[in-house]
Amino acid sequence: MNGGKIMKGLFSFDGPLYKFCVLVYETFMLNLLWFIGSLPIVTIGVSTSALYYVYGKKVRENSYNIYSDFIKGYKENFKQALPIGAVITIILSFSIYNIFKLNKMGSAYLWLQGFQLFIIFQILLISVFIFPLIARINMKLIDILKNSLILAYKHIVISATSVALLIALILFTIYKPSFGLFFVSFYALVSTYFIEKVLKRYIKIQT
């Protein structure tokens, strides 16, 4: 009898197996939606903000639909996320290109490589809060950048941990390319748990 109850609970809609399958499905589908939304390259920021829009609702335990909410977040945040995301993408791409180019020029340019790495780290650090803020609050671009910078350094442990997680997942994806099917959305989900703990200190009304 006990064994039957355990098996029934395991496979029920409230059971851990069902919840795990739903999590895997949502992570895969949101990763796919993010990839499709990012195809023009300059819209990577828009897709990322839409991803945080969905996961923000999930973490706050609000009702959500991965498809309709992703599209809603994509449309509503387009004007703000597009320019910021495009600039971030260009800066990161240019810095990474410079690192590889400088690496071929010898040890005399190690300090320039270090400077490029510093720029990349700063951009990633601030970006931890940029897109969740876009997904959560309607603010001017300058205010988004200013508040993201303040939050990134005021909560440096969380922002640095999020950057470290991103780097670790990138390295893991290089080792296991199949994880690329889940990579972006998995990172967004985990980082949202950290970020929401910070944002709820400053946002009174949970939406």
Keywords for this structure?
207 residues, mainly alpha, 0% strand, globular
Structure description:
This protein has 207 residues and is mostly helical. It has one domain. Helices cover 79% and strands 0% of the residues. The chain has nine helices and no strands. The longest helix is centred in the middle third of the chain and has 27 residues. The chain is globular and about 60 Å long. Pfam families: DUF624.
Let me know the largest β-sheet. none
Write the H/E string, N to C. HHHHHHHHH
Can you count the beta strands?
0
Average residue-wise pLDDT = 88
**Please, how many helices?**
9
Low-confidence stretches: none
Helical amount: over 70%
Sheet/helix structural class? mainly alpha
The proportion of strand residues reads: under 5%
What gyration radius follows from the Cα positions, in whole Å? 19 Å
Total number of distinct structural domains: 1
First-residue to last-residue Cα separation:
44 Å
Molecular shape: globular
Short description:
The protein is mainly alpha-helical and about 210 residues long. The protein has helices at about 1-10, 15-35, 45-60, 65-75, 80-105, 110-135, 140-155, 155-175, 185-200. It has one domain.
